[in-house]
Amino acid sequence: MAARQDVEELIDDPSIPGTLRARMASASAIRQFAIDELALPDNNSYHGYVNVGRDAVTWAVFAASEFSLTPRTWCFRTPR
Description:
Layout: E1 5-6, H1 7-12, H2 18-38, E2 48-49, E3 63-64, E4 71-72
Antiparallel strand pairs: 1-2, 3-4
């Protein structure tokens, strides 16, 4: 969280790659739509960005026995 950057500042920063700036602008517009049109709360969500240096922060894995639709459940956390 210490590396968090403000999304609006990233959008305005010409040194940030255009694809990332475009994604940030889209996320900001979607957030504003949710507030204005869907009456969702205007809180601190999606105001910050952190480059974690990999494709995903978390992975969600789902499994079921062969030919089954009943999911198996467990929780696995990697050691820190």
